[in-house]
Here is the input.
Amino acid sequence: MSDLLRDIYSSIMDGRQKETAEKVQEALDQGADPSVLLNEGMIAAMTEVGKLFEEGEYFVPEMLVAARAMQTGLGILKPYLVKADVKSSGKVVAGTVKGDLHDIGKNLVCMMLEGSAFEIIDLGADVDPQRFVEAVHQTQADIVAMSALLTTTMPNMKVTIEALKAAGLRDNVKVMVGGAPLTQQYADEIGADGFAPDASRAVATAKSLLAA
Amino acid sequence: MTKKTFLERLNDPQVFVLDGATGTNLQSRGLTKGLSAEVWVLEEPDKILGLAKDFVAAGADIILTCTFGATTIRLAHTTVAGKEDRINRKAVELAQQAVAGTDVLVAGSIGPTGQLLSPLGPLEETDAIKCFAEQARSLATAGVDLLVVETQFDLAEAKAALTGIRMKTDLPVVCSFSFDRGTRTMMGLKPSTVGEEITPLGVAAIGINCGRSLEDNQKAMGELRESTTLPIWYKPNAGLPQLDPDGNSTYNLSPEEMASQVSGWISIGAKLIGGCCGTSPDHLSAIAKEIRK
Ligand code: B1M
Here is the structure.
């Protein structure tokens, strides 16, 4: 790993936004491969952050600032990634379902998808089923990506799928779901097309859904 | 009959019985997942009253109002937005009805806003203080005997709650935290820090509620005990939730298993004992019997 790559990695781990931005820019100016910066610097750092969170080393504040640093870095990286990977992988309408304010995981999934050249329409958190429907309608999205972290809001994924059906849009889009309490089984039961347990596998799922 | 006040009781040598869970018990009585329990205060008051009466019958000395989320911020996302004051008052009325003719006290429950404070989240401290002050005013005017700020995870939000409350009432306040990352809250807050920071703020007791396993909760209480001389309020959850495919959570500890831990909790220093998520009236009854043995 080059020094700069290591700096990017550690500035994200420590949640230093400004430094992340500077180091990413510096690496790009030196002609670094954007996808290497993304995968080996930024995504690797967020994966480690997730691991430390699971292990009880990191807590919510550390995770949030790391995610923000990553987002800042990604903002700088994006134009270069798009140049490198000209063709858009697909259009994704993303959001955390109604009643649920947890958006850290959803934001990570969006960042990873963005890093893989998906175009993201992020509706934020606490998204009403009808807003998903409208966004799909307006943007002609390929994928609806829903996140839920509460067992009490998981059922709203099903409600949203039903709303897409009622609007006659269900066959136009693939629906993928995720979030800590979700399982493949639950995703199947509510009639989603795909499920991913983490953000990097969310990218693989999104790609396979569109390849199918 | 004049009841002994909360503060008077804290000076008694005995250990007091709190109540069990609100959310999980209401769900097993038909509350739709995703629906705030506060909606039922207005729409199914008999169910709220029924649960409160069951806790009284099970042996509670203090029951909580069904107002955990009855703040403007929290209800903004629901069908009862704007009705916070009515819900708080009605919930107190229902709890008072359940304890009528007994010595049981009514504690006004105040939960977290559900949002993160700035700079980590969107919520400004002044808005949080205002929101807690409004709820405290409603609960105090309706006549609760004490207030319980519970399931806190962020020191700053808990302090905002205490500040807001003190702007409106002098009622005794309990402040209780959820160490659901083992012996830390989700923000990484330690029991010892809670003890050091909250003890000087004029609360009547410091508490632990919800959390992870019984072992983790007990460890957290040990750490808290070292850092405060205040009475400890203790409402652990009935073990860890198991999720079925429908998203229903069931808790794995039987009433007997939970009750068998009670003497250990008392020896560490718990003064007020009940249960959080998964604690049914049967669990509470077993706990109460153990306390009064
Ligand atoms: C579309 O395709 C896909 C594919 C993959 C997808 C995907 C979509 N979405 C996610 N993934 C996947 O990829 C991501 C990256 O690998 C992963 O995303 P995750 O989101 O799983 O993981 C994130 C990277 C990290 N994880 C997180 O960000 C969640 C962490 C924990 C600690 C958590 C946090 C941070 C918060 N919380 Co809350 N919170 C907890 C969480 C406990 C825990 N240990 O998980 C949990 C989820 N919260 C809980 C609760 C109860 C609550 N929270 C609440 C509030 C909050 C905060 C606002 C304080 C904060 C959220 C801040 C924010 N902006 O998101 C309240 C509810 C507010 C609401 N209406 O939503 C409140 C009700 C708390 C209260 N008492 O007030 C619990 C849920 C219990 C349950 N059975 O439902 C909880 C498990 C904590 C606990 N131990 O009890 C994968 O799941």
